[in-house]
Structures are given as C-alpha cells and as structure tokens.
Amino acid sequence: MAGVEDQVSSLPNSLPITPRTVNTAPMFHHDDQFGSVPITPRTASVAQTPSMLSLPITPRTARTPSIVSLPPSQFHSPSLSRSPLLLTGDHATNKPVKTPRSRGLTPRFITPLGSPLRKALKMTKLDPQDAWLPITESRNGNAFYAAFHTLCSGIGVQALVLPVAFTILGWAWGIIGLTVAFVWQLYTLYLMVQLHENHETGLRYSRYLQLACATFGENLGKLSSAFPLGYLSAGTCCALIIIGGSTAKLLYETLCGATCSNPKPLTVVEWYLVFTCVAVVLAQLPNLNSIAGISLIGALTAVGYCTALWTVSVAEGRLPNVSYQPVRKGSQINKMFDLLNAFGIIAFAFRGHNLILEIQATMPSSEKHPSRVPMWRGVQFAYLLIAMCLFPLAIGGYWAYGHLIPANGSVLTALFAFHSQDVSRSVLSLISIFVIINAVSSFQLYGMPMFDDMESAYTTRCKKACPWWLRSIFRAIFGFVCFFIAVALPFLGSFTGLIGGIALPITFAHPCFMWLKVKKPKKYSLSWWVNWGLGLLGMGLSGILIAAGLYVVIDTGVKISFFNPQ
C-alpha cells in the first residue's frame, strides 16, 4: 500500500484522478490485433487509500467504453493530426491534438505508403524519390501545360516526310492509312491517360517503362519497351540535331545568298555544334513543368511552319509533269515491301506516346480531382490542331510535288529545291527559323526522359537529390553524346520506315495489352475484342514493317558516310 501511495503522490496536482469503483468488476478483452488479454480491475482497497480520500471521486457506470482498434503506426502518422479517432473515450478533450511538424527531407504531400488510412481514402501513393526527379519534381501542371507539351511532341519534323509515303501509297491508300493511324493512336492515347492512375492500389505510373514493367513484369517490360523508348528519346534528339543544324545552314545560305562576303562559312558539323550548344543551355531548366513555355513556343512554331509549307506549296501550284501514280519499282516482292515501308513512315509520324505518362505526371491528382480529366481535355485540344496540320500538309504537299518529292527528303527540301527562286526570301527564312526553334524546343521535351533516367540512377544510389552542378554535367554530356552520334551517323534519316516499325508497338499495341491486363474487361465484350484485335494487329504490323524496312534498306542501298554529314 505504501508503494501505491508513493505513485499517487508523485502525480501532477493538476490532473484529476478517477479510481475505478468496487461495484463494477467485469472481465473484458481488448479486441485489437495485439491479441486477447484478460484484464481485471483493481480491488476496493485502492479506492480506500487514505491519501486518496481527499481527491474528487466520480463513480463510473458499468458500461464498457467503446474501443477503437488502430495499429500503433497511425498514432504517429501526420495524416491523423486532426482525426476524430484520437479523440474517443478517455482521450477526449476540448483542445485539438497537435502533431509535431516533421522537419525531414520528405515533402509534406507524401504520407506513409503503408498507412491503412491511405488505402481507406484511396489517395494516390507517391514514391518519395519522385520529388527529386525532373519529371515529377513539380506537380502543379494543368490542362494548358498538357496541351503545350502534347502539341510540341505530336507535331514535329517527322510530319514533313508524310508526302513521301503518299508517293508510294497513292491518294486512296495514303489518305486511308493516315486516317486509320490517326484514329488508332488517338484511341491508344486515351487508354494511356486512363491507365496513369490505378485507383485500386493508389499508384501513379509516371513513366511509360514503369507501367510496362508493372503490367508485363520486370523482364518482359524492359525487353519489349526499353530499346524503343530509348530510341524515341535519344534517337529523336540526334535526329533533331541533324535537322536543326542542316536547316540553320540552309537559313544562312538563304539570308546571305550570292552576296555572302564570308570566304569560309560554317560547315555542317559546325552548325550541328551551334545547335547542340543552344539546346544544352536550354536543357538546364530543372523539370518538365519549367519548360512549359518552351513547349508553347515549339508548338506555335510547329503549327506555323506546317501551315506555311502547305499553303506556299499549294499557292505556287503543281509542278509541270507531276504524276500521282504510286512509285513502285521492281518485282512484286519489291512493290509489297515498298508499300509496307510507306506505312512505316506514317507510323513514325505518330510518335509521342512515350511522353504522355510523363506529361500527366506533372499534374496534381486526387480521388475527387483525378489528373486524367484535365489531361484528356488538353490532349483533345492539342490533337485537334495536330489533325489540322498533318492532313493538309500531307495532302497539299503531295498535290504540289507528286512523285517529284525526293525519296529521302521532305516537303521542306522539295520547297527549297523547286521554289527557292519563286518564293520570297523572307518567307523561306521564316519557315527555316520556325523549323529550328521547333527542333530546339522538341529537344528539351524528348530529352527529359533521359535526364530523368540519369538522375534516377544517382538518387537511387546516393539517397538524395542530384545537386545542380551534377545535373548540368549530366545534361551537357547527353547533349554532346547526341551530337557525336549525329556527326558519326548522318544517314539515320534513311531508316525512317525501319524505325517506325520498331517503335510502332509503343504507340499502337502495348497500350491495348496494358488495358486488358490492368482493367480486365469482361471476356468477349466489345472492349475485350477491340483491344485484343488492335494489340495483335499492331504487333503483327510491327514485325512486317521491320522486315520491310530492312529489305528496302538492303535493296535500295543507303549511302553510308560515317563522320561525313552533307
């Protein structure tokens, strides 16, 4: 008894102590995950202690208080700082419960990944490492940013080669192929937007490779997607250096003309280097949201040069002796592979699906306001403008030049080849400037996944954010490696059809299989048939187009000129 008196006397005077009474002595158990342990109330001898008789005694009723079962981790979770669950029964007070603010490196918008409250609320799970990476570092994007990025990546220099496919396919098959490809890729784009968030697990797939590995498994996902995604990012940057540097040289010659006073103008390689330096400087912007303005400029210039190219070509009229008969030479096998190679060129024009999840990852998301709503709204606006650019460019360019378009050229090269003396020098210069600006802007967008990969390797190893100086070094190294490849392999444009076949599953096939695996539509339903049919057709076309591209390259030959760009 003396020990009990000492314990009671050591308590603070400001805390009222209510001992349990004698008349209530039920046996009860705690119904939580820690097991069922019998608890017996204290006897009457405690209530009759002389030192406790002066304390106010409030008898309790025989009703057993309600028990709230919570794992211990939730009592320390910032998510429950204002939860009424902590104010139940004996713990109820009039003052709100304050939770100390964490001063760690974890951003405040990230709650514990294993918290049952998060599963109950179906909130989005975020990897803490995402706060350090350029794609997901900033999540304040909106529908306008999504439209800018989608438009800049959807319209590019790859659209300039569409009339080349028409020279092989002709009017009917050219328009049919372009329309089918546009509708097909728009449908798979819708699937990607919906698959970005998994509401059952609360996960956001912020990168295409993440979704592929989560759907197909780690090994199969990397095997099927890693190389095409790498080419669509790094390979596109190399192609942009080639196109941007060549167009810069063309712009200089257009402005200078025959009156050029410089006896030693810059070579093509030097123009490549100038373009690369400008691109590397702009690449120092930290994250994907920070280049929204650059994407807007790139989108406007893309719409500008596409519109200018087809309007000027149509205004100048058809060339004399132009023909619209499909250009198919050789045996039946040669004609068939040329036809398939043309479809590969059309497929190559519709790239950009490798950036859709990354663009959507820059948006905030919750169960009440999911990111798919503003993302799809921005995509719809962007693809309306894309359709208004691609179809007139392909049809108008083919109408103006017909079979005279160079086999390895584009509408731009045809314009300068046939109308450099007829069209105003200022108009030609403006088109060239638009192409250069768009190429520089697209370099930032297509290079961002590679920047993200490099910084992800550092953050995974070092468990901290990449410092700014190391980030600058990474991006400079990437830019000049692309410059080296562009100089060493200037004939990459000759493999357009082959590359289109390799990258085709990323746009046309994989999203359908992902939808089937994640959403699990009812067997033999319309969605089940459509996605199985498009997925299998896309994989079959990919294999055929790869074979056709290889055959055309071997049959027609490619002018190999290592380290000798023309």
UniProtKB/TrEMBL annotation:
<keyword id="KW-0813">Transport</keyword>
<feature type="transmembrane region" description="Helical">
    <location>
        <begin position="171"/>
        <end position="193"/>
    </location>
</feature>
<feature type="transmembrane region" description="Helical">
    <location>
        <begin position="468"/>
        <end position="489"/>
    </location>
</feature>
<keyword id="KW-0029">Amino-acid transport</keyword>
<dbReference type="Pfam" id="PF01490">
    <property type="entry name" value="Aa_trans"/>
</dbReference>
<feature type="transmembrane region" description="Helical">
    <location>
        <begin position="378"/>
        <end position="401"/>
    </location>
</feature>
<dbReference type="InterPro" id="IPR013057">
    <property type="entry name" value="AA_transpt_TM"/>
</dbReference>
<feature type="transmembrane region" description="Helical">
    <location>
        <begin position="427"/>
        <end position="447"/>
    </location>
</feature>
<feature type="transmembrane region" description="Helical">
    <location>
        <begin position="495"/>
        <end position="516"/>
    </location>
</feature>
<keyword id="KW-0812">Transmembrane</keyword>
<feature type="region of interest" description="Disordered">
    <location>
        <begin position="86"/>
        <end position="105"/>
    </location>
</feature>
<keyword id="KW-0472">Membrane</keyword>
<protein>
    <submittedName>
        <fullName>Lysine histidine transporter-like 8</fullName>
    </submittedName>
</protein>
<feature type="transmembrane region" description="Helical">
    <location>
        <begin position="229"/>
        <end position="248"/>
    </location>
</feature>
<feature type="transmembrane region" description="Helical">
    <location>
        <begin position="292"/>
        <end position="312"/>
    </location>
</feature>
<feature type="transmembrane region" description="Helical">
    <location>
        <begin position="268"/>
        <end position="285"/>
    </location>
</feature>
<feature type="transmembrane region" description="Helical">
    <location>
        <begin position="528"/>
        <end position="554"/>
    </location>
</feature>
<keyword id="KW-1133">Transmembrane helix</keyword>
<feature type="domain" description="Amino acid transporter transmembrane">
    <location>
        <begin position="140"/>
        <end position="554"/>
    </location>
</feature>
